[in-house]
Amino acid sequence: MSVALAIDDLCLAYQDRAEVLTDLSLRIASGERVALVGPNGAGKSSLFLAIAGILKPVSGRINLFGNEVKPGAFHPDVGLIFQQADDQLFCPTVEDDVAFGPRNLGLDADAVAERVASSLAVVGASELAQRPVHHLSGGEKRIVCIAGALALQPRLLLCDEPTSGLDLRNRRCLIRLLQSAQQAMLIASHDLEFLLEVCDRALLLDAGRMVANGQVAAVFGDVALMEAHGQERPHSLHPHHVRHHQHPRSDA
Length: 252
Prior knowledge:
ATPase-coupled transmembrane transporter activity; nucleotide-binding; ABC_transpr_CbiO/EcfA_su; 2 domains; AAA+_ATPase
């Protein structure tokens, strides 16, 4: 299987802070879905910004599908769903916002319109196309952010807290969408039950360093590891987990 993302010895820092990531190396294969977990401030969002070419590394290399990521350049192979929807949405209407990426790919008007329509349809938001962005609810903004990333038709999807603000119905729709998608994915979330359903592998970051890399249920089910790094084992992995909504059989 080909490598979608290759990171070697990556260090990231901001001017007013110490390093937020230190000597990080990882590989993600094409089509692989990888969970990224860790406490607040572990460096997850900063890693996404570096992969997308927004944040310049102090040192190290990032390669996407064999091409080195250049800070400040447009990288159409990457679709980034920001942690805060308002950081991503800036056009007057939903349609304009979802169209922004395809237009920057140099597509003609018909191709842009087709991508906008198909991306909104796949997330169940076609009826929002003409809505002003500032009239959307938090959950609607999150859905539009997902549509905007999908409109690029990226080969790597970076999702930063994608379930934030979603109701149960839209959360379930997102799970089905990501399960059926063909892109490689790196998904940061505190919603570990969601990650268990979507991802194959999990990376655990703490204080800017990777402390675990393994099969998602194995990492999440390691109580000592998770607690040592400010996480909790998901309820569904608890040995005494009892499925909700199971009722005793009635003999009546």
